[in-house]
Fold:
Amino acid sequence: MFSIAKKELHQFFSSLTGYITIILFLLVNGLFLFVLKDSNIFDFGYATLDKFFELSPWVLLFLIPAITMRSLSDEFRTGTFEILQTRPLTKWQIVLGKYFAILTVILFSLLPTLIYVFTIKSLSAGGGIDTGGIMGSYIGLFFLAAVFSAIGLCCSGLTGNAVIAFLISAFACLILYFGFSAVSQLPMLQGKADYYIEMLGIDFHYRSISRGVVDTRDIIYFLSIIFFFLLLAVKNLHKK
Structure:
């Protein structure tokens, strides 16, 4: 499993693609937070990173499918999946190795954003910020990225075309993140099943953790979604 993760990380960082992906994530967030007029924190007037945690899920929604789209699809396209099958590795070890490699890349992308915390703290009038809320938001953001990674890896195993894998995973992430919230707002569901439908979406649980309260129910939800899509990826490899 660790050999697979090491190989994936080497492939990702052996070209400019990996570095450009991380730089673009930081650049887009930096532009929205500190440059663009309608979204920068200076115009907001409060020492908070709420804007960052509102924007990041939408950036990750496209960033993570771009990272995961070649994970399994390239193995099928180039024929190296047959070589992997000759190794003493189970399907779970292959999937988990690739998954942990993706999470490592996401972690490398999120770590530089900690400088935003120190920037906001130094700019605040009293020198104090809502540390608990920010920590909760980072935990929620990491779990959100972990869910998107599992979805992207699963979708990458559906086809040998990386572009198609990107489109499918981006659409699936969008539906699971925002789709249930949108459906729950339909007039016919108001005051009936709207709350329970909204609970099925990722956005509901992400916002819950972002308030600074790490609820066990939210953690179980995220872990269940991750396990479900990794299981689908393993089942698909068995079919291959």
